[in-house]
Design brief:
single chain, alpha+beta, 6 domains, 5-stranded antiparallel β-sheet, about 10% strand, DNA binding
C-alpha cells in the first residue's frame, strides 16, 4: 500500500475541528508539547488556555517565524495550500504538488509534510477540509500587487471583481461560451473553462504564435505584464478571451486557473520533496585529518596568545563610535603576519571569549548594567564606573587590553585553552567576515565595533558541522552541495518565484575570508556564512584538510555550560568542553624545555616551548620566523633588552647552557659579554636629565658627536653631562649613536625595565544576540502544557447567569461576594470570581475557596493550577457554576 493511500485511510471521514483552537484542544499532551518545542515563541509568556495559544499561533510575527523554519518542501506545500480552495482536500493539495502526471516522490513525502504542518499549527482541519492558518494564507497568497511565491496570480473571480458585467459577457462570447444571466455564473463558467486542460488546449489552437509566446513567458511567473492603451493584436486576442485580465491601468495578469492548466496542474515548476545529499569532495585517512586539525589548533592558540601578548601593556585606542581603527587593524595583522580579515577574526574571537575588552567601561557598560548598578537611589557608584566616568570627563583615551580572564586562560593546559575558544566561537553571533563592509546606513563596519551581530550565524555554523559529521570520518564535503542542502533546509521566503541564487563555492576553490556582504541581501549573507563557517573551522582546527576531526565531532554535543559556571570560564563550566579537550590533548605536542642554538646567532625551537622558557627567550631574542619550528635571533638590541629587565651576563650564560641541547656558540657568548660590558657604563638620571660615566673619554666622544646636538648636552663635571631632554629621549638618542646607557634611580641604582602588564577591570563577554527565544527544556514544556490544560478547563467551565461588570467580569455586592465564597469554602465547591490586580488588569478565575479570613480568600485556582490568595476588595463579584458543570469540575 502506498504512503498516499495509507494517509487517506488513516484519516477520519468527519469534517474535523471547526477552529484552530478546537484542533489544539483535541491534541494529547505529547502533541501539544511538540508544538511548543517547535515554536518556542508561543511560550513567552505561557498561554493561559488553549484559546490564547491558538490566537498567539496565528499572529503575524509567530507565523512568519514558523514559515522561516520550514524546509523547502514543507514551504512548497504551504504555498500550494495558499493558492488552493479554502478549505482544500488532501487530494487537491497532492494534485497541485505532483501535477497531472503524478510524482511518486511527492506522493511519498507529502503525508509526513502535512503532519509536520499540522504539528506546527500551520494547517488544521480534517482530511477533506485542510485549512492553512489565515495569516499564513495572507502572507503566501497572491494579491493585486504581487504574485504568490509559486508564481501564480489571482483567480478569475479575484481578477474580475471590479469588472463590468458587460465586459465579462463579452469575454464569454470571445471564448466560445454561452451568455449567462448574471456575473457570478459568468465568472464560474470562465473559471471552469480555464480549469479544463483539454478545453484550454483547444482554445489555444487558434491563438497567434506571438500570443502563445506571451503566455509562455507569464506561465511560471511573475504573471503580470504591461500593456499600452492600444495593445497589439496578439495581446488583444488574449485580452478578449480572458487569458489576460486587467488589474490596474496598464497592467494585466494571467489568471491562476489558466496558468495551472498551462503548467499541467503544478503549483511549482520543480517540487523538491527529497533533501539534497552532501557530496564528498575528497577522502583522507582519519588519522591524517586529526593530525592536521591538531596542528592547526596549536597554531590558533599561538596566534591568539601572540595577539594578547602584543596588547599586554595596553592595546589600540577605542574609536569614538566603538571598535578598532583601520590603521590599528593593519598593525595587528602585521604583528600576526596574517591578512587583515583573518586578523579581524582572531581579534573578534578573543573578544567573544572574554579575553580582551575596553579598559574604559562604556563599551561593555550595557552588559555589566545587569550585574551592578551605576548609581543607586542613594548615589552609590562602584569604583569601576567612577573611574570610567572620570576618564571620559578628562578626555583620556580608552584602549583595548587583556582582561583578568586572560591570565586564567593562559595558565590552562593547551587543550583546555582551545576548548575555551571554541565554546565562545560556536554560539557566537558576532560575524567577523562582515568587517570592512557597510551596514544599512552605509557606515563601515569595524572590528570590535557595533553592528556585527547576525542571529543566523550560530545556526548556520552548527548545521555545517552537523552535516560534515554525517559523513564518514575522513570525508571532506563538497561546499556547493553543502550550501544547497542548507538552502533546502532553510529556504528564504520571498514575494515571488525563487530568484537566481548566488554562485555557491566550488569544490577545490578556497574562498577568501571576509569581504563583507550587502546588508539587504539575506541569500548572499547565508552563502557567506557557510563559507566563513568552513574557513573558521579550518583555522581553529575543528576540521583538518577539509574534513571534520574527531574532537570536532565531540564539539557537537548537546551539553553546554552548566549552571553556576562563570561567564568567562567555558572550559571549566562545560562538560562538552571537557570531552573535547580530552580528545584534542593527545594530538598536541608536549611543550619542550630546550632549544637548539646555532652559530649564526639563532636558536631553533623545534616545537612549542614551556611557558617560562618561551617568556624568557622572548625577552632575550627576537622571533625571526614561525611555523612548525620557531627561529629566534639574538641581536645587540635583544640582549640589551634582557639586561634592562634585570638579568646579568652570568645569568644569561647559565640560562642558555641549561636550555640548549647544543653547545653555546662562541659568537653568542661574545655578543652577550660585549653588550654586558658596555651596558650601564653610561648612567642617565633626571635633572632634566643627565649622563654620568666613570670613563671621561666616553663622554668626550659623545660631546664631539654631531648627532648629540639635538640633545643639547653640557658638561657639568669630568664624569657628568647634563641634557635638556627627558631621560627617555636621552636614552633613545644615545642608543641611536651606538651606546648602551642604563637608567638609574634617584639613589644611583640601575633601574630595571620590566614590561608592565595592563588589564581591564573584570568584564563580561559579549552576549550572543539570539534568533528568537531559546528552545524549551522538558521541564518547562511539561509545566507549560499542564498550565495550558488547567487554564483551558477553567475557561470552559460554564457559570450561572449573573450581572456583569465592564469587561464581562461577574459583579456582586461585597456582602454577597463574602457570603458566596464562605459558603463555597464550607461545601468545597468552585466558583467564578472577577479579579482586578494592583496594575488594573482584570481577569476571571475559577476558584475553589479553602478559607476566608482577614479580608482575604485562599483557594485552589484552577486557571493557574495552584493555590493562591486574593484580597476580597479586589474581587468584582462571584458567579456560581452552572448545574451541568457539576461532576465536570476539575479536581483539586
Amino acid at each position: 500500500m502506498s504512503a498516499e493511500q495509507q494517509h487517506r485511510d488513516g484519516q477520519a471521514a468527519d469534517p474535523g475541528p471547526r477552529s484552530l483552537a478546537q484542533a489544539l484542544r483535541e491534541r494529547d499532551d505529547a502533541s501539544l508539547g511538540a508544538l511548543l518545542r517547535s515554536r518556542p515563541d508561543l511560550l513567552h509568556p505561557v498561554p493561559t488556555d488553549v484559546t490564547q495559544l491558538a490566537t498567539r499561533a496565528g499572529t503575524r510575527a509567530s507565523v512568519l517565524r514558523a514559515l522561516e523554519h520550514l524546509d523547502r518542501f514543507a514551504l512548497q506545500a504551504a504555498e500550494a495550500l495558499a493558492v488552493a480552495p479554502d478549505p482544500a482536500s488532501y487530494q487537491e493539495l497532492l494534485d497541485l504538488l505532483a501535477g497531472d502526471d503524478g510524482d511518486e516522490e511527492v506522493a511519498g513525502a507529502l503525508p509526513a509534510t502535512v503532519a509536520l504542518l499540522r504539528e506546527r499549527a500551520l494547517v488544521w482541519g480534517g482530511e477533506d477540509r485542510l485549512r492553512l492558518v489565515r495569516t499564513a494564507r495572507e502572507l503566501l497568497a497572491p494579491s493585486a500587487s504581487h504574485s504568490s511565491p509559486t508564481g501564480l496570480g489571482p483567480s478569475v473571480a479575484e481578477a474580475t471583481s471590479g469588472m463590468s458585467p458587460g465586459r465579462i459577457q463579452a469575454i464569454l462570447t470571445a471564448a466560445g461560451l454561452p451568455h449567462t444571466h448574471d456575473a457570478v455564473s459568468a465568472v464560474a463558467a470562465l473559471s471552469a473553462l480555464f480549469a479544463d486542460r483539454a478545453r484550454v488546449a483547444e482554445l489555444l489552437e487558434g491563438a497567434p504564435e506571438a500570443s502563445r509566446e506571451v503566455l509562455g513567458r507569464l506561465v511560471w511567473g511573475p504573471p503580470y505584464g504591461q500593456v499600452t492603451a492600444e495593445p497589439a493584436a496578439h495581446l488583444r486576442w488574449l485580452l478578449d478571451r480572458g487569458l489576460l485580465l486587467p488589474t490596474t491601468p496598464g497592467t494585466v495578469v494571467l489568471p491562476r486557473e489558466a496558468a495551472l492548466s498551462l503548467r499541467g496542474g503544478r503549483a511549482h515548476r520543480v517540487p523538491e520533496p527529497t533533501r539534497p545529499q552532501v557530496a564528498v569532495a575528497a577522502e583522507r585517512k582519519p588519522q591524517v585529518v586529526d593530525a592536521a586539525a591538531g596542528g592547526q589548533a596549536l597554531a590558533a592558540l599561538d596566534t591568539v596568545e601572540e595577539l594578547l601578548r602584543s596588547w599586554d601593556e595596553g592595546g589600540p585606542a577605542v574609536l569614538r563610535a566603538g571598535g578598532l581603527s583601520i590603521r590599528d587593524l593593519k598593525r595587528t595583522a602585521t604583528v600576526l603576519e596574517v591578512p587583515e580579515p583573518v586578523a579581524a577574526f582572531w581579534v573578534e574571537l578573543a573578544y567573544a571569549a572574554g579575553l580582551i575588552a575596553s579598559d574604559g567601561g562604556y563599551v561593555e557598560e550595557h552588559h555589566d548594567r545587569h550585574d551592578r548598578p551605576d548609581a543607586d537611589a542613594e548615589g552609590y557608584e562602584d569604583e569601576e564606573t567612577r573611574d570610567a566616568r572620570t576618564r571620559r570627563r578628562s578626555g583620556e583615551a580608552e584602549h583595548y587590553a587583556p582582561t583578568p580572564e586572560y591570565d586564567a586562560w593562559r595558565d590552562l593546559p593547551p587543550a583546555d585553552r582551545w576548548a575555551w575558544l571554541l565554546e565562545a566561537w560556536l554560539p557566537g553571533t558576532r560575524t567577523p567576515g562582515l568587517i570592512g563592509g557597510r551596514d544599512g546606513r552605509d557606515r563601515t563596519l569595524s572590528a570590535l565595533g557595533p553592528g556585527l551581530d547576525r542571529s543566523p550565524a550560530p545556526e548556520v555554523r552548527r548545521r555545517v558541522l552537523e552535516l560534515m559529521a554525517e559523513l564518514e570520518p575522513g570525508q571532506a564535503p563538497d561546499p556547493a552541495t553543502l550550501l544547497e542542502r542548507l538552502r533546502w533546509e532553510r529556504p528564504l521566503r520571498s514575494a515571488g518565484p525563487r530568484r537566481e541564487q548566488p554562485e555557491p563555492p566550488r569544490a577545490g576553490v578556497r574562498p577568501a575570508y571576509g569581504g563583507g556582504v550587502a546588508a539587504n541581501d539575506p541569500e548572499a549573507l547565508r552563502t557567506k556564512l557557510t563559507e566563513w563557517a568552513l574557513l573558521e573551522a579550518e583555522m581553529l582546527g575543528v576540521t583538518g584538510r577539509g574534513a571534520l576531526a574527531s574532537h570536532g565531532r565531540a564539539l557537537l554535543g548537546t551539553e553546554g555550560r552548566s549552571e553556576g559556571a562563570g561567564a568567562g570560564a567555558p572550559a571549566a563550566g562545560s562538560a562538552r568542553a571537557t570531552v573535547v579537550a580530552a580528545l584534542l590533548a593527545p594530538l598536541l605536542p608536549e611543550p619542550l624545555d630546550h632549544v637548539l642554538l646555532q652559530a649564526d646567532l639563532t636558536a631553533v625551537a623545534p616545537g612549542p616551548l614551556v611557558r617560562p622558557l618561551a617568556e624568557a627567550l622572548g625577552v632575550l631574542a627576537d622571533v625571526e620566523s614561525k611555523g612548525g619550528a620557531t627561529v629566534y635571533r639574538f641581536t645587540p638590541g635583544s640582549v640589551r633588552r634582557a639586561l634592562d629587565a634585570g638579568r646579568t651576563a652570568t645569568e644569561l650564560h647559565a640560562f642558555l647552557d641549561r636550555h640548549s641541547r647544543t653547545p653555546v656558540p662562541q659568537p653568542l657568548t661574545y655578543l652577550i659579554d660585549d653588550v654586558a660590558r658596555r651596558h650601564g657604563l653610561l648612567r642617565v638620571g633626571a635633572a632634566s636629565s643627565y649622563v654620568r660615566c666613570d670613563d671621561e673619554s666616553v663622554l668626550d666622544e659623545i660631546l664631539a658627536d654631531r648627532r648629540a646636538t639635538a640633545l643639547r648636552l653640557r658638561r657639568l663635571a669630568p664624569t657628568v653631562v647634563a641634557a635638556q631632554a627627558d631621560p627617555r629621549t636621552l636614552i633613545e638618542g644615545l642608543r641611536a649613536m651606538g651606546f648602551a646607557p642604563a637608567a638609574e634611580s634617584a639613589e644611583g641604582d640601575v633601574m630595571i625595565a620590566r614590561p608592565h602588564a595592563h588589564r581591564t577591570p573584570p568584564r563580561t563577554p559579549p552576549a550572543p544576540v539570539p534568533d528568537g527565544p531559546p528552545a524549551p527544556d522538558a521541564t518547562l514544556l511539561t509545566a507549560a502544557v499542564r498550565a495550558v490544560r488547567a487554564g483551558d478547563r477553567a475557561a470552559t467551565a460554564p457559570r450561572k447567569d449573573t450581572p456583569e461588570a465592564p469587561g464581562g467580569l461577574p459583579r456582586t455586592s461585597p456582602a454577597d461576594t463574602l457570603a458566596t465564597v464562605q459558603a463555597a469554602a464550607m461545601t468545597g465547591e468552585s466558583v467564578w470570581i472577577g479579579h482586578v490586580n494592583a496594575e488594573g488588569a482584570a481577569s476571571q478565575r475559577l476558584l475553589a475557596p479553602l478559607r476566608v479570613e482577614g479580608g482575604y480568600v485562599t483557594g485552589y485556582d484552577h486557571t493557574a493550577d495552584e493555590v493562591r490568595t486574593y484580597a476580597l476588595h479586589r474581587i468584582t463579584g462571584v458567579a456560581e457554576l452552572a448545574e451541568e458543570a457539576d461532576g465536570a469540575e476539575p479536581a483539586r
